[in-house]
Backbone:
């Protein structure tokens, strides 16, 4: 089957008998199709030959060719006459352009002369007006400067009066403020004394809280730990084993537990293994039968240590002592809160701020005054006088600012006029240098007018001559029509000649092809190919029947292989599972043959065996052979297991596990391990009581299977 088709996809195998038969069938079918196509083409060529002969007879008319040539020559003659007329028109176009250029130049010279004369007149007029305006502006500036000086003197006098009145008002207000500050200082001193008393109370309470560590969190933790300890004691009392001691009358006390002598009527709880020593007699060992006894003892010890640590952190000898300290701490915290509230009310910004406020008020009230403070009426009179002086000063200063602004604007305007006069003077000098002398300017203008009139006359004459020749020359559209007419005539003549040549060539080719069709015998070839195609179809059918039969046989063989896997591979995998568990817990192996492992399945992923490490692969290969040897031994066919450096890449831990598994297998059948790693394997091998073998030279005469001779280790 594999020589005919591919086993995976069932396609014909390249180069196989079925592939060759199908290719042969396709080749014959293509040849038959080609022969049929050739027969159809031969029939089409006969029809084309008849049509081309009829067309060739129509194109052989010589009168039509002569007419087309004459038409082309006439069109060429008309184009040559048009070219001559167009050339004469081009010469007159150039003459008109030259006359137009001379006319434009004369007009430009005349306009330039007249513009410069007009501009010179305008500049002279502007200069006269600007000089008159400058004189007026300078007089206005002198008048403004005098007014500014007068207003400045008035402002200086008013400022002196305003300063004197302001000093008097400030002195009156200062005397009044000192009197107010004396009354304010008394109230601040009282607040400061009360605030200092509250601060002292807060400081004393804070010192007391530092010495009392019984915080609510610590007390609560100690309470929870004490309750847990009581619960553990109750559970231990309920579950523990108890021992009671009662001596006979006048009997000496000779019992000791853990080195401690027991007195009469003693009751002891047995929390764990306990030895009771009877002097001169022996020792009694008691063991509690409760499974959680030791656990409760350990929990009680931990809980007792936690309670001791909590009480130590508080500084109390017992929980009751800690509770008393907690009450005292709460009382101190309440007093401290009241003192803080009072201090916040008296000094919300702090004692330092209150003291600074007291110092500031004391500074204002500290200066003494012999005279009595002024009344409010006197201060009002001074304030009114100050207000009227400030209003007058503001009015006069605004007026002074207005005059200053006017003076600056006037100075800017004077500067602009002076700049205009300088620019106009400069431009007048440039124009006078560019124009002729004043007495020659009118005669120069007359010369330029005469030159412009002559150029205009010559331009008109040239335009009239050009118009006359423009009527004789064809327009661009008419000239294009002449060119198109000539091209059409030549194209028709060329197409006629070219078509005749093409028809002659096609007729010759068709006649040759028709001769070959008669020589090749296409009809006989088609009959032979149809017969060959029937034989090829039969060959393909026979081979496809073979493929179907072989496929059925392959299926039967695969079913037999499945039975083999059920009989061999499944028992092998079952025996492999307990061997694999110590090495790779929770893993399994997928087999594809008695000794062929293909995949390692772990709890978190699946890997092809080719992707795991070299050490893991060699360990799995060894375990597979162990499982196979066990299976064969169970079926009555024991066989030895020989390993040659099969664990070269194993780490120390896995090497120990593997040697243990090999030693266990050696109890069921023979296991021989060859290795050059003596130092690594020796301790493991000796631990399992294995025998050490050596390789020795072979002597045919004295060789026996049971002889062991020490020699060098094998590589």
Residues:
């Amino acid at each position: 089957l594999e020589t005919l088709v591919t086993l995976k996809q069932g396609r014909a195998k390249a180069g196989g008998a079925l592939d060759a038969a199908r290719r042969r069938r396709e080749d014959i079918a293509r040849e038959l199709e080609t022969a049929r196509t050739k027969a159809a083409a031969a029939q089409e060529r006969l029809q084309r030959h008849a049509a081309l002969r009829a067309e060739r007879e129509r194109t052989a008319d010589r009168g039509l060719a002569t007419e087309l040539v004459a038409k082309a020559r006439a069109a060429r003659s008309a184009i040559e006459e048009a070219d001559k007329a167009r050339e004469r028109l081009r010469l007159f176009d150039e003459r008109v352009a030259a006359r137009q250029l001379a006319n434009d130049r004369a007009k430009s010279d005349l306009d330039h002369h007249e513009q410069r004369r007009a501009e010179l007149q305008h500049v002279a007029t502007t200069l006269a007006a600007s000089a008159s305006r400058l004189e007026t502006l300078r007089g206005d500036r002198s008048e403004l400067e005098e007014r500014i000086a007068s207003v400045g003197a008035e402002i200086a006098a008013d400022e002196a009066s305003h300063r004197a009145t302001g000093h008097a008002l400030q002195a009156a207000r200062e005397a009044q403020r000192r009197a107010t500050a004396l009354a304010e200082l008394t109230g601040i001193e009282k607040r400061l004394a009360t605030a200092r008393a509250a601060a002292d109370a807060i400081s004393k309470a804070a010192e007391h809280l530092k010495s009392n560590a019984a915080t609510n969190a610590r007390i609560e933790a100690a309470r929870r730990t004490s309750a847990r300890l009581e619960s553990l004691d109750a559970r231990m009392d309920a579950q523990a084993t108890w021992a009671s001691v009662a001596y006979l009358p006048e009997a000496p006390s000779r019992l000791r537990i853990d080195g401690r002598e027991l007195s009469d009527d003693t009751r002891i709880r047995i929390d764990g293994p306990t030895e009771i020593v009877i002097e001169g007699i022996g020792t009694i060992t008691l063991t509690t039968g409760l499974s959680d006894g030791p656990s409760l003892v350990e929990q009680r010890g931990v809980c007792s240590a936690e309670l001791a640590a909590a009480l130590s952190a508080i500084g109390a000898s017992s929980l009751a002592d800690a509770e008393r300290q907690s009450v005292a701490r709460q009382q101190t915290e309440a007093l401290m809160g009241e003192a803080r509230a009072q201090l916040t009310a008296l000094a919300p910004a702090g004692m330092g701020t209150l003291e600074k406020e007291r110092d500031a008020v004391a500074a204002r009230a500290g200066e003494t005054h012999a005279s009595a403070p002024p009344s409010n009426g006197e201060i009002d009179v001074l304030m009114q006088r100050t207000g009227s002086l400030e209003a007058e000063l503001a009015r006069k200063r605004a007026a002074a600012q207005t005059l200053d602004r006017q003076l600056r604007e006037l100075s800017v305007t004077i500067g602009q006029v002076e700049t205009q006069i300088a620019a106009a003077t400069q431009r007048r000098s440039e124009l006078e240098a560019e124009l002729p002398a004043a007495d020659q300017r009118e005669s120069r203008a007359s010369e330029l007018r005469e030159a412009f009139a002559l150029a205009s006359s010559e331009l008109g004459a040239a335009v009239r001559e050009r118009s006359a020749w423009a009527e004789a020359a064809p327009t661009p559209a008419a000239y294009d029509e002449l060119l198109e007419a000539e091209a059409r005539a030549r194209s028709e003549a060329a197409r006629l000649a070219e078509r005749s040549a093409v028809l002659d060539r096609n007729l010759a080719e068709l006649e040759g092809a028709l001769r070959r069709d008669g020589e090749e015998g296409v009809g006989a070839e088609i009959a032979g190919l149809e017969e060959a195609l029937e034989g090829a179809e039969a060959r393909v059918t026979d081979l496809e029947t073979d493929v179907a039969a072989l496929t059925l046989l392959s299926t039967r063989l695969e079913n037999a292989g499945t039975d083999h896997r059920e009989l061999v591979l499944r028992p092998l995998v079952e025996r492999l599972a307990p061997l694999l568990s110590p090495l790779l817990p929770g893993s399994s192996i997928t087999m594809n043959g008695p000794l062929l492992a293909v995949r390692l399945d772990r709890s978190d992923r699946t890997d092809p065996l080719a992707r795991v490490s070299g050490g893991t692969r060699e360990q799995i290969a060894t375990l597979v052979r162990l499982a196979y040897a066990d299976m064969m031994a169970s079926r009555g066919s024991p066989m030895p297991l020989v390993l040659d450096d099969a664990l070269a890449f194993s780490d120390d831990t896995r090497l120990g596990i593997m040697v243990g598994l090999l030693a266990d297998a050696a109890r069921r059948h023979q296991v021989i391990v060859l290795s050059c790693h003596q130092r690594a394997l020796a301790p493991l091998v000796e631990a399992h009581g294995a025998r050490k073998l050596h390789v020795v030279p072979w002597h045919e005469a004295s060789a026996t299977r049971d002889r062991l001779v020490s020699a060098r280790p094998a590589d």
Observations:
- Residues 705-715 have pLDDT under 50 and may be disordered.
- The chain is about 75% helix and 5% strand.
- Residues 652 and 680 are 9 Å apart (CA to CA).
- Residues 62-211 form the longest helix (150 residues).
